[in-house]
User: Fold Exosporium leader peptide domain protein from Bacillus clarus.
Amino acid sequence: MSEENEFDSHEILNGAALDPSLIGPTLPPTPPFTLPSGPTGATGIGVTGVTGPTGPTGLTGTTGPTGIGSTGPTGIGATGPTGPTGLNIIESAFRAFKQGAEEEQQYTAGDVLVLIFSNEQFDFGNEFDNVSTFTPNQDGVYSITTGIRFIPNDLIDIYGFSLNINLNNAETIVSTTQVNIFGTALANVSAIYGLKAGDSVRVRFRATTDGVIFGNPFTPTFFAAARLPFVSPIP
Assistant:
């Protein structure tokens, strides 16, 4: 085709495209439509994953106001009986002793000498008379002990002696006896014994030679007693 004919052909097409008689009518717009949904698939059956960590606890809320109602009435029932008083393990205990030459007691052979203890170290129940006698205020089981130092006038004389803890000037609770000795004698006796309130407990000494009962911090002459924490009746 010649260049002239090719040009004429484009001219014809362009002219036809712009001719209104050649344009068809405008169609109405196509209405939209939705395709129907398909059936829901089956729920999955896999294992549920682990639960995540719990979040931090929130702040505590403010405390509500205190109630303002009146206090209820006090009960009017009778008061129950008072229970028994508990046992005090130190309610009865004392210790007294001799101290130095000014408190020594001279002894004559054959006499029964009640020993004197002028220095009271303690007395919880006020039961020792500061001289020679322990008088318990209540029934009980008591630990009683005494110790002495006896110096004979003749240090080479052979002699014997006895040391006793006596009850009510008659019954001997415990005693010790030594014979065929010479020089200074040291002796201790003790007992656990049931006493009644008002009993009198003393320490007595007897020897076959003259001498002196002496005491000092190193070899004390002493008398002591204490109530044990028992509540059973005295047999």
Residues 9-16 have pLDDT under 50 and may be disordered.
